[in-house]
Amino acid sequence: MCQINEEDDEAFQALKSGTNKGPISRKCVSCDQDACVVVRTADPMCRKCFEEFFIHKFRSTLSKSNVFGRGENVLLAYSGGSSSSALLHLIAEGLSVQARRRLQFQAQVAFIDESSLYSDVVSVREKVTDLITNRLQYPLHIVSIDDNLDKDDDFQQLLLERTKTLTAREELVRRRRLKLLFDIAIREKCTKLITGDNCTKLAAQILSDMAQGKGAHVALECNLTDSRNDLVTIVRPFREITSKEIAMYNRLNSIESLQNADISTMSGPQSSIFQLTETLVNDLQRQFPSTVSTIFRTSDKLEKNIRPERCDLCCCPLDINVDESLISDQNRQKLVHQLFTTSPNSNEPVHVCYACRRLLRDVQPNVQSH
Amino acid sequence: MPSATCVSCNGQRPAALVRPKTSEPYCKQCFFDAFEREIHETIVKEQLFKPGETIAVAASGGKDSTVLAHVLKLLNERHSYGLKLVLLSIDEGITGYRDDSLETVKRNQQQYELPLIILTYKELYGWSMDEIVKAVGRKNNCTFCGVFRRQALDRGAMKLSVNKIATGHNADDIAETILMNILRGDIARLKRCTLIMTGDESDDSEGSIIPRCKPLKYAYEKEIVLYAFYKRLDYFSTECLYSPNAYRGNIRTYIKDLERLRPSSIIDIIHSGEQLLVKQSTKMPVQRVCERCSYCSSMPICKACLLIEGLNKGVPKLGIGKTERYRKEMQKKDECCSDQSLCHCMKEKLTVNEHN
């Protein structure tokens, strides 16, 4: 489909002849300097122009819809990965006194520590504390993924022994992490939560969500502002930046990211729905460089679901009838309460969306088995 | 598990297979019953047919359409839908593929005692696929075949004066189409491809064409194969000689991998697709009729007319890729219809007049 008329296309011809020249002789597209990065095959750029382009893209995404109020409390979700490291760097620059058009909010940082899930992993807490508290001097909130759970109700055991598939494990961790971030934000009176989700990751997430029956939430999931929680709005300033651009920015500015283990570490590319989808998107992107942006633009044209009833697991609006969404199994109901709700009354009915219902089928709820 | 018994008849019979949809052991009889019942439920719930209607079953001789024809005939008698069924086949003119599969359709016609009509690309458009491939080459020829077949089915249905066309699209096909439309950014089709019925009163996007429905929308491909296999249905299974279509192949493999990880994935994708709502502000192509052949089109001149024009003028790549400029030129002079020997739309007008 995408190979149509390649031979006839002038741009393609120009490109073909251009690639033979080798990287050294290529000039930046916007100035006469020698290029040092190639974001898209046709557009080599020098360092200065690339950084300008990158920062402009970031700042314009933010200022497009005037998301932040002056002096607003904002929570940054930092995972240690390359995206959130770059995000932290950009925001630190934007908040600094020397910045042109300075950002006007109060930043705090949240780090969800997953190391308790894996037995032989070195905790990265010291590194995170050093970076954020000592160097950047932002208030830091570290919360462990199994925070607030009873001793007999081990999250690690639930994930590794009572959850059947890696897909379900990943999705449980993803929902739990978001829930904890919301909790921190509410506790610290932050009204915005900034995440480092980039375009490439969101494209894979969109397809993976589609494959899990979460189509109703795709529009919400990739929007700049996501209001699934009434108190805290999620903001995604990297939604138009690809992972490749982030990697280049990090390299040029020597921004280090932490090597973290996560639930899918050491598993193959076909071990879960998300892994499989990410592999597909990356493979297609290599052959057809417009793949990611097409997926992204398509979901940008979708309307958000605005039903008032929410799913108790993923906080998204329900996509099935209220009575269909009710969880009848007592043990599953208890499980959802322990992991995902803060309400003290654990007899309240639990409603979940279509995809979370599928997810819970892979989880063995009975705690009292031993 | 040789000792497993069927979950449906409470262990009266030993299980013969594991149902792909539910991963439960079933005996043959219970599987047939469940498969047929689910299709019946879909037909009743979605109100696909009304009593007294004539339905054209689009028959290619492949597994899907053979199972569709078999099940529709069976259910029509069992539940007295009161339908008149006919088989409608399109002969693209692909030697070594379609000629063999049409033999299968002819045998099916005898087995099911249904009337059959075969239309050929050659008589509709003046070109058979073999000739087109000779002119176009191996690349992009699927564009011609796909565009032409869509119109050909409608024309055949009009000739037979049927009320609806039933196609053999299964759940895997629909899931694949949903993902393809996301990857291609085709927002208009993304909205339409999950509908079980298109072109009827509830769907205002298409004008006066014959409604189409997909009774097998919720049937897994694997179950269709199992059903055809155990029922010993006579079907034809060979890939088209001209279809490499690597891009779609990627998505197909992806869906098979997903199904292995979580068998419900296919239904989940369809659920996702049904939940998608398109923003009001999104620009959608306006449906209108082609100025030449009066077939529905989103452009002043439809794709089929454009492709034919290219073929007849010896520039077969005309309708592929960027076509805006050429469409405008065609609209301006429109000399094609004065030359009656070449243009398929004139032929169509003539045949319509004959009928009247």
TrEMBL record, chain A:
One of its GO terms (molecular function) is sulfurtransferase activity. Signal peptide: none annotated. Residues 74-256 form the tRNA(Ile)-lysidine/2-thiocytidine synthase N-terminal domain. Its main location: cytoplasm. It is found in: Cytoplasm. One of its GO terms (cellular component) is cytosol. SUPFAM superfamilies: Adenine nucleotide alpha hydrolases-like (SSF52402). GO terms for biological process: protein urmylation; tRNA wobble position uridine thiolation. Pathway: tRNA modification; 5-methoxycarbonylmethyl-2-thiouridine-tRNA biosynthesis. Keywords: Cytoplasm, tRNA processing. Belongs to the CTU2/NCS2 family. PANTHER family: CYTOPLASMIC TRNA 2-THIOLATION PROTEIN 2 (PTHR20882:SF14). Plays a central role in 2-thiolation of mcm(5)S(2)U at tRNA wobble positions of tRNA(Lys), tRNA(Glu) and tRNA(Gln). May act by forming a heterodimer with NCS6/CTU1 that ligates sulfur from thiocarboxylated URM1 onto the uridine of tRNAs at wobble position. This is Cytoplasmic tRNA 2-thiolation protein 2.
UniProtKB/TrEMBL annotation, chain B:
InterPro entries: CTU1-like_ATP-bd, CTU1_C, Ncs6/Tuc1/Ctu1, Rossmann-like_a/b/a_fold, TilS/TtcA_N, tRNA_thiolation_TtcA_Ctu1, UPF0021_CS. Its EC number is 2.7.7.-. One of its GO terms (biological process) is tRNA wobble position uridine thiolation. Gene3D superfamilies: HUPs. Keywords: ATP-binding, Cytoplasm, Nucleotide-binding, RNA-binding, Transferase, tRNA processing, tRNA-binding. The keyword Transmembrane does not apply. SUPFAM superfamilies: Adenine nucleotide alpha hydrolases-like. One of its GO terms (molecular function) is ATP binding. Residues 290-318 form the Cytoplasmic tRNA 2-thiolation protein 1 C-terminal domain. ATP binds at A58, A59, S60, D64, I90, G168, D173. It is an enzyme of class 2 (transferase). It is found in: Cytoplasm. The keyword tRNA processing applies. One of its GO terms (cellular component) is mitochondrion. Residues 55-252 form the tRNA(Ile)-lysidine/2-thiocytidine synthase N-terminal domain. Pathway: tRNA modification; 5-methoxycarbonylmethyl-2-thiouridine-tRNA biosynthesis. HAMAP family: CTU1. Plays a central role in 2-thiolation of mcm(5)S(2)U at tRNA wobble positions of tRNA(Lys), tRNA(Glu) and tRNA(Gln). Directly binds tRNAs and probably acts by catalyzing adenylation of tRNAs, an intermediate required for 2-thiolation. It is unclear whether it acts as a sulfurtransferase that transfers sulfur from thiocarboxylated URM1 onto the uridine of tRNAs at wobble position. Belongs to the TtcA family. CTU1/NCS6/ATPBD3 subfamily. This is Cytoplasmic tRNA 2-thiolation protein 1. It comes from Adineta steineri.
